[in-house]
Amino acid sequence: TGASLPPSVMTTTWNNEITLYLNGKKVTAQNVDPETKLVQFLRDSQYVTSPKQGCNQGVCGACTVMVSAYEPSTQKITHRAVNSCLTPLASVNHTAITTVEGLGNTRTGLHPIQERFAKAHASQCGFCTPGIVMAFYALLRSNPKLTTQNIIDTIDGNLCRCTGYRPIVDAMKSFATQGGCCGAGSCADCPANKTKSEADSQSGCCLGLSGLKALDLTTLDSELIFPPNLKNPAPALHLKGPYSEWYSPTTLASLFEIKKNNPQSVIVGGTTTGFHGKNNSHVYIYPAGIPEFNQISFTSSSLKIGAAVTLGALYDFLLAQSSLTPNSSFDALRQHIPNIANTQLRNQIAIGSLVASNEWHSDFTPFITATKSIVTVLTQDGTTKKTFEFPSLALNQGDVILDLTIPASSPKTFIRNYKQSKRNSTSRSVVGGTISVTLGEDGKVQDIAIVYTSVNAIRAKSATAAQDFIRGKPWTPEILPGVVEKLTADYSSDVGTLQESSYKLVLVHSIFYMFFESSFAFFTGKTDEFPIPKFPVSVGSQTYQTHENPIVYQGVQHLSGDLHTTGEAEYTDDIELPPHTLHAALALATKTHAKILSIDDTKAKAAPGVRGIFYGKDLPNKTGTGMTFDDPVFAIDEIIFWGQPIAIVVADTYQQAKNAANLIEVKVEELPAIVTIQEAIKAESYHKTGLIPFPDLYERGDVAKGFQESEVIVEGSYSLPALEHYYMEPHCTLVIPQERDELLIYSTAQSTTSVQTTVASIFGLTHSKVLVKVKRLGGGFGGKGVLRFPVAATLASKNLGRPVKLQVERSVDLVTTGKRAEYEAKYKIGLKKDGKIVAADWQIFSNGGVANDLSTFILVETVEGIDNCYHFPHFRTYAKCCKTNTVSAQAFRGAGTPQAVAFCEFALDHIAHVLKIDSTKLREINLYKPGDEIPMHQKLPESSTALKTLWDSISRSSNFQERRKEVEKFNLENKYKKRGISLVPTKYPLFAGIFRSMLKSNCTVHLYPDGSALLVHGGIEMGQGLHTKLQQICAETLGIPLNKVNTQANDTFVNANAFGTGGSTGTDVHGPAIISACKTLLERLEPIKQKLPPDTPFDKLILHAGIYGVCLSASGFHQMPFDPAHLHDFFDFSWNAIVCEVELDTLTGKYKIVRCDLNQDVGKSLNPAVDIGQVEGAFLQGVGWMTLEECFWDSTGKPLFTGDNYEIPGIRDIPNELNVTLLPNSKGTGVLSSKAIGEPPQQLGVGVICALRQAVAAARKDLGIEDYFTIDIPATSEKLKKVCGNALAYLNSKSEKGPKQEE
User: Fold this and answer.
1) Known catalytic residues?
2) What b-and-e string marks burial along 444-454, b requiring 16 or more CB atoms within 10 Å of the CB?
């Protein structure tokens, strides 16, 4: 239908200057390229480095800033968190931008949020911290009276790979007016009220945050004032760049004039992305400044939303309405919006964009389809409008969407939205949808809408056959079998073209069933058994033993915590660039295995800004990188994995280099590729033994005899997937050429020495000419051992004689760096009928990728640890590392041991099923005892009594036996929800002798006249708190305050020949060297001390020592002890245990961790706060590996994970309750009686699978299925649903009861 609009005024003046306020100061920018993102402008032009470039895809939230703007329609100032990596700079013209630098700093004082994050131990590597702080600050500015539930509902767009989120939640809870920190220790849900530290008798804040700065956002006295002139209307903006134009009109007439002159122009929301190519000029129109596009009007009959209104603004509007009828269309929309994308994206995505794009995976379009929403479109002249019922849009060129009208639902309508995704936030739907039913007075269906998203690759689709079948029928259970049949007809051909096709169809059925039950309960006044899920606020406790020492054994805050929260912590990408620095990008192979026939870089060399292109043939020495020197930097004649670098392109800017890299044309002849373990076995493609000589076939005892003595033999197999490190900071290298052929290299490396020696050897330099510096890493986990990036950057720098920065963005990092290797294992285990293990025979294969590097080393660790905590009298392994055309595998936290633990525990669950014995009892009767011999012939020391101590302790503290009964009761009372609970111990062998032979450290301690000390050591700080612990050791040994000790960046000139940091070795390697250096200094000072009064302050002592000519610098050295005759004996053992309870939705496969209790043996904890953080963070990584994270390759070896579809756990995925205990009265063999902590907790993730197995078994039991089953890892919802069985089979007379159709 057509209708006329009043005439609009044409804009006569266009402004080409961007004006904004940055942290309270006015900033202007002219001649801005429309393609410029806000994060680039902040970092490159304003040197504001707290917004980090973590993913450039709007997923990780590390780039979050707050955008404040005046809304003329409401006459209010809004404060919204946005992803600056996706935000066009032009879209924030005439706004105020706040970054974490604008809150506070260590010079003038921290903001209360920054202070509490630091004190709550809410940062480890710190890379993600500024983004999280800003997301929370924006929430508080918008909602000063927030509740803890607001936190979980809103802080959903920030990822953290280190902390496990619990301390982050605690820090934010301390600001909540309901359910958070009370400030007096009396909160009902306070973790500290459940369990306090054994020596903690202090009162005050229940989160341990007493005496901190208060924050009253209602007065805003200390917050940045919104600039008053920004309340004036924004001027019209026009920018023109080399490839695109940008218009921000302020009137409808101007918009349509632009459309008329630029028929191909695109109207955009707030997340325009990407370079579009020289020959594809784009004109963008940003209509947010036009009043007609920003209106929201609400009546009892409809909700009208302007096309430029963002989802975030719509959600805020709905929250402010007190008259929303429960279960109405408007209430359903209010509850659904938090499940769409994440807060930052919702604050940027415009309603018009969602309507126009109508993407196949949209979580919004099913709702507006089901509600028969009306889209208003302005025609080409801008004066006539027409309306369409979504999704039946008939847009002509030049038409513009003006608004969307959602009609109110009738009182006899029930509507609900659904979303099934892998992760609980920032995750695309596997299947989502909206279902609405309206009943007549006779109880029959008057109208029905069933719309699902992600069921095809085109758009959301209505279930027309099912809808037609339902209309006019009574809304009773009798319709269900017919509906299932019609839904199958509606969607089976669509889902068949997609991944997870059979699972998608199962979800279509399950979601409808849940809707039917909920709506039936609504209409009949019964209890809804499938209510809209709420994400609870996680609670928990942290229990540890304290000691009298003033510095060590105390829960000291991470010494960079303040720097993390203020954005002052410097990472490689933050380093201020020297003049004339060039930028580099890599050109990557797009084949898995191929012979290179020719390379044409003509177009690339002619591209703007390009200064040079370099190849593997340009390297002076073609030696590969890695521990075995077989991982090539570039493909020269042959491509050996998809994503292998072919060239490095250098240009004036990174974007220019990236664009040019995409123009390189490579002609190839494809060769046969080996991708999987099974293909490698068939081709007998294996790596030879690398660093550690170890036989493929290893046996201890007499396995054949053991099997003869066995009464039962169980055989099985299991596979474990690859795992991406997903450190928050991608790789980055800055190479600065110096005089006399010297090089200064800043690198994101876990080993400065490896970078130094590799670069020196490839370029024919002496080691002394290569200086490598690392201040800190934004996470590593073993993945920062890749050396091709510093070599590639050095190649460019040396050829051009200029500084070169190689920034590896997330999508490139993912395909060019190794993962935790895939594994396959077969087992044959002999036992007595009572469950006592007699013999075990294992066949283990890992996928090492194209290069050996550390892969065979890691495989040996798997062999060494596959006994876990259990005595195997007779033991044999056959292990091979496969050589394939995939990127070379890398060490990942725990290296080969987590795989070993997983295989062992899964085998024990299999045994328990075969023997019909309780799996907990099976584990307990086979636990190691002191004096037992492990497979490597080493006898366990008396200290291994810690294993049984842990077992008994966690069983008691978690109320394990009582909760098992509660779980059984729950399962009897619930048909579609099942619970499982497990108790699993783990053993982490610390530092085999062959490894210890390489572990050595030297350090230097300098004393200064003011009594302060500078500690220089070779360890890399990457979030594990290494610097903090080592400074504690130094301060304690010297007897000076901790704030008197400082550390500097790791540096190969100041501290040479340092071993790489990894394997949880840092403290145990460097700590003794520091003690040695400090003792040397104290010995030198002792004669001077004897001459002075007993109470002479330390600074005066140092002053006198200088006068008497005492050297105030000392070096320390430590080589970890090892016996060459026993290279497979271990230094110590870390014992750990988990009790995990899960709840599984058997209709969808979705699960949640109800509660986890973790007990960790860390010896005498040097820093309980740091150690607990390591436990929680490593554990959640293990959960991600076991249940969520998937690396996909197609059959040709092409990686299918690009960043936005690789999902690590988020803040909504953590346990509802998490209790961590550090085992008291334990002493380790490490420095000051401690034990290594960084890696052992990751393997506790296996406990989640053991609990899920029990929940699945309960579901299968209800269906009469008691066969043994395996759960494929990662145990995603799809895989869990597959083994649960089809609980809804009875709805379809053609279906058989049971899981056959799904297995």
Assistant:
1) 1239
2) ebbbbbbbbbb
